[in-house]
Amino acid sequence: DVKVTQSSRYLVKRTGEKVFLECVQDMDHENMFWYRQDPGLGLRLIYFSYDVKMKEKGDIPEGYSVSREKKERFSLILESASTNQTSMYLCASSAGVSGGYTFGSGTRLTVV
Amino acid sequence: GIQVEQSPPDLILQEGANSTLRCNFSDSVNNLQWFHQNPWGQLINLFYIPSGTKQNGRLSATTVATERYSLLYISSSQTTDSGVYFCAVRSNDYKLSFGAGTTVTVRA
């Protein structure tokens, strides 16, 4: 089974901090994704990457950046955390254009 | 982008009951998945089913791609089936678009 591992389950950060959320997958998938989930707003795509060093903006990229230096790792960066970035962050990977997605266990980030 | 509508939004079941969740989508797709989100927030993949019928234990799913809908069946429901069920579809790009989910509560 594909494993997608997110480095932290719960995280509390202060406003203005630089925050790194890490995601690692072990099945050599080309595609990796970052979503955030908020009550009433559902799951929204922040960024995705279809290859090493490649990245594409999703629906809500403002305030975020990403890094993919190795195929198995996709990092989400909050350059200066704000309280409106308090959310559940979900990482996923997939193979090819039509392959199924596998999600990590999520990171609940609270910015105070 | 593709619109995904799930119904009903909420479902309350007595343990042992059967139920059907529906997902309608607005365009042709090359990927459709059903997920269950557990109380800890993790999205568990139930089915990858862009077309046809699949079964896994008490759960089964059917997608009729030509009519742009999918159904998820839960038989003999158990309290552990509680949670939010999401349908998600993918067209010719990389993006997976999610429905709003169906919240299922199974009472003992």
In brief:
The complex is a heterodimer of chains A (112) and B (108). Chain A is mainly β. Chain A has strands spanning 4-6, 10-13, 19-25, 31-38, 42-49, 56-57, 64-70, 73-78, 87-94, 102-103, 107-111.
Describe this structure in words.
The complex is a heterodimer of chains A (112) and B (108). By secondary structure, chain A is mainly β. Helix content of chain A is 0%, strand content 54%. Chain A contains no helices and eleven strands. In chain A, the strands form two sheets. In chain A, strands 2, 4, 5, 6, 9, 10 and 11 form a seven-stranded mixed beta sheet that branches. Chain A has a four-stranded antiparallel beta sheet with strand order 1-3-8-7, with no helix packed on it. In chain A, strand 9 and strand 10 (102-103) form a beta hairpin. By secondary structure, chain B is mainly β. Chain B is 0% helix and 58% strand. Chain B has strands at residues 4-7, 10-14, 19-25, 31-37, 43-48, 52-56, 59-64, 69-74, 83-90, 96-98, 102-107. In chain B, strands 2, 4, 5, 9, 10 and 11 form a six-stranded mixed beta sheet that branches. Chain B has a five-stranded antiparallel beta sheet with strand order 1-3-8-7-6, with no helix packed on it. In chain B, a hairpin with a 4-residue loop joins strand 7 (59-64) and strand 8 (69-74). Chain B is globular, with a radius of gyration of 13 Å. The termini of chain B are far apart. The interface between A and B is medium-sized, with 25 and 24 residues.
Descriptors for this entry?
heterodimer, A: 112 residues, mainly beta, seven-stranded mixed sheet, four-stranded antiparallel sheet, globular, B: 108 residues, 11 strands
